Amino acid sequence: MRTERLLLRQWRDRDLEPWAQLSADPEVMRHFPSRHTPEQAEPLARTFAAAIEERGWGLWAVEVIGGAPFIGFVGLNVPSFEAHFTPAVEVGWRLGREHWGHGYATEAARAAVAFGFDALGLTEIVSFTTEANARSRAVMDRLGMTHDPADDFDHPALPDWPQRRHVLYRLASPRADA
Questions:
Q1: Which end of the chain is more exposed for a tag (fewer CB within 10 A), N or C?
Q2: What would the pLDDT profile of 54-99 be if each residue is shown by its tens digit?
Q3: Which CATH superfamily is domain 6-172 in?
Q4: 76 vs 28: CA distance, rounded Å
Q5: Residue 177's pLDDT band (boundaries 50, 70, 90)?
Q6: CB-count exposure of residue 153 (10 Å: 0-12, 13-18, 19+)
Q7: Beta bridge partners of residue 154, listed in sequence order
Q8: Residue 142 and residue 155: Cα distance in Å, rounded?
Q9: Buried b or exposed e, range 52-85, using 16+ CB within 10 angstroms
């Protein structure tokens, strides 16, 4: 999938080293319970790749066309936990810090959302993050997603984590009313 500046694609072996570096960066992982070691990061990337291979969609590797060959991931995912809004499909992203502030997350997430509505026929896409993650919340706002504080939840997979409280954003398909 292409946007004006980006390519969302299947993962490649050469993505594994920059992915491990990104996953170990304390600033990138600030709103996650822990950073990943290379031994943890590689199987995660392979899981993302397997999902894309199996379903034809998922958390795609992202590269800048004519520029950086790997900047992180953006795409669609099915949350693996039960909550009041699941089952659902979420849009998510994680980019290397040096690629923040260029609009890449929003640009790629718009393409992923359009794919979800157009190709998959989804009626709604969600996104969620910790309350304090202002950068991701800003992307959600730019995507036109809405936040209702009544939807916020304590992440069930993180019972002892201080940032357990998460905000939920929703986006209805433009065809939902048609």
A1: C
A2: 999 999 999 999 999 999 999 999 999 999 999 999 999 999 999 9
A3: Gcn5-related N-acetyltransferase (GNAT) (3.40.630.30)
A4: 19
A5: low
A6: middle
A7: 165
A8: 24
A9: beeeebbbbbbbeeeebebbbbbbbbebeeebee
Q: At residue 47, what are phi and psi to the nearest 5 degrees?
A: -65, -45
**Model pTM above 0.90:** yes
Whether residue 124 contacts residue 176, with contact meaning beta carbons closer than 8 Å, is answered with yes
In 102-128, which positions are buried (b, 16+ CB within 10 angstroms) versus exposed (e)?
eebbbbbbbbbbebbbeeeebeebbbb
Q: pLDDT tens across 126-142, in order?
A: 999 999 999 999 999 99
Structure tokens at 103: 């609009």
